[in-house]
User: What shape does this take?
Amino acid sequence: MPPCRDLLFQIRKKRKKRKKCKKSTLTKHNSTSLKQLSPQQQQKAEEEDTEEGFGLRASAPSHKYGVQPLGNLYLSSSSFNSRNSGLGTLQNLTDELILEILGFLNATHLGVLACVSKSFYVFTNHEPLWRNLVLDNLVGGFLYNGSWKSTYVASFYPAFASVGSLALNVRDFYSDYLFQSLLCASLEMKSEWLERDNITRRKGISVEDFVLNFEVPNKPVLLEGCLDNWVALEKWDRDYLMETCGDAKFSVGPVELKLEDYFRYSDLVREERPLYLFDPKFGEKVPKLGLEYDVPVYFKEDLFSVLGSERPDYRWIIIGPAGSGSSFHIDPNSTSAWNAVIKGSKKWVLFPPEVVPPGVHPSPDGAEVACPVSIAEWFMNFYGATKKWEKKPIECVCKAGEVIFVPNGWWHLVINLEDSIAITQNFVSRERNLLNVLDFLKKPNASMLVSGTRDRVNLYEKFRKAIEATFPGTIEQLMSKAEEKKSQRKKLTFWESVSDSNIGAFKFSF
Assistant: This one.
């Protein structure tokens, strides 16, 4: 087992690069939910939860090892916290730091350490530790066995498969950090998180109308009726996809899984961050899938296509259970995107490029983004703040048969409200974002920012030359138009020159 001093040194380096910021927010209902309540008290707690707290799914289990939120300690007749007594001098470390240290251990070391004390037993059985071990060691696929620890044990030690699912209930263990994982995994979306729907909706508009009113001004829109002729909309459900795809494996995080195995996982899992099937090569793996949908007429132009097989990844099939999704990000390579829901529904929250969402902290060069570890956590801790913002986010629930247009540069978060299947594509259009993409690709740190291609360094030169060869003069014309618009914005009329725009009165210079 590596020396603790070495692990702490590695942790210090790792923490500087972390891409998350974790907060603990527990309401009155959460603090008492694990106490023994009478039926009358339970009903009262549910009523309070509806009014001011968070609702848990009906199937939500108690914490597997008896972990309770720290608030319960203050309601207990005893001040004893087995979390501290079982850690010895390590009790002064935060739960997060302890788990990061444990993340450097292998399965054998975790198993040995679990025998040291009840406290280490709880920490070493933390599911994300075993999830990482499974994903790191079973890249070729796994068969989910009800928990990540059980999955690992069943894969490497089949004779002890049943042991991995056993759990001891530890009394008087209080930890907000550990309990919050359960809370986020079991959380229902509150109605107030879903009720805001302020996106513009359109049906049957012309391409010219779309370009003029949405693409050029870089404004999101939800389009209805675009998928009516899709074979996918009619046929794509899990049975059809499993039959069509057979033994083909798809990207699920860092691993490859057959659809049958992924659906087994998504049916059984109850965790804070469910794995998302997000595969950019589905059309090559199962060509039939690529033939059963059509790019909506508004997004036909995609200038990255001039690169042929060297173009960056641009289309994905997306499958995930309720609660899965993507935390706040900006789409890659300064592209715009469209996302079409085939089955299920998705909650979208979007912020314009100049507004960084609350709780999100991008690095100055844009290479890294620090944000809450889970989508549920963001809604718990940060969503309420947007109600008071002058520039409120654009929000909607996109349902089966609908398409959302996500302009380039917009921050967006997406969460599946139910089991969902979708197709998304990123694209480069001439009118709106060709120049933006070229500027992005030639940034000094482009090799860190560019994604979806092996050749990050030379993508700018290849793309520019291919555009000039295929569409001669296009770049120069667009640059000329951009300069003209820029000069028009700078040029003031006489009245603008003598008026103070901030107070609406005249100004005089002497």
